[in-house]
Amino acid sequence: MTFTIERSQIEGLVRSAIRGSLAASSAPQSASKTLAGFQPPGWVDGKPNLRVSISARHVHLTDEHVEMLFGAGSKLEPDKDLYQDGFYAAKQTVMVVGPRRRMLPNVRVLGPTRPFSQVELALTDSISLGIDAPVRHSGHVHDTPGCVLVGPAGTVKLDQGVIRAARHVHMNFADADHYGVKNSDKMQLVVKSKECSVIFDDVLVRADEAAKLEVHIDTDEGNACNLEAAMEILLRKDDCGCQKK
Description:
Its cofactor is Zn(2+). By secondary structure, the chain is of the alpha/beta class. The chain has helices at about 5-25, 30-35, 65-70, 125-130, 175-180, 220-225; strands at about 50-55, 60, 80, 90-95, 105-110, 120, 135, 145-150, 155-160, 160-165, 170, 185-190, 200-205, 215-220, 230-235, 240-245. The strands form two sheets. Strands 2, 3, 4, 5, 6, 7, 8, 9 and 10 form a nine-stranded mixed β-sheet that branches. Strands 1-14-11-13-12-15-16 form a seven-stranded mixed β-sheet.
């Protein structure tokens, strides 16, 4: 027996096959396939890789202040990439001048530029300058002291913006899930060193999608715990649910 198929039927079958193929190719993959081989930023071997960095005194500048300090048309020139992607230590430095002309020369500028200028110091730096700099988180410069910045092409007088940077931890959302915390929570950093182990409280969580797990402490804090010779470092919630490095 011979079967005949009308042309319209053939065209219908072809259209159906094409629609099915397109639907299959555009359908979301299963989670196991999509996430196969994927690791969040900074993770190693499927788990967070904790880094603790000493944040030395530095300056953040606006585009306008870069030109005032280094000349018209000047831009920050990257010198060394920082651990967090997109951030760098610039080639440029400035002198920070406090009351009674006390000064810190060659203070590094960090990039990229920001909507406001800010100077971040350790306690010993602020004492040296004669500035009573409060402990603040970055960007919280309201009612803070000012200073004068001196560059090769000019000066900038800041009416506010000098702070002692509060300790904090950058992390992505996968890191936050791992530790059971969320943005703006507080954590503890435990540094175990011979004869000078220290527990740092009030480590602010700063979580976003792209950050890599990194705690920032200042030079005084790093020296106090002898960070360079640390034998063990723990980052944990305030309820002491510890997670090892």
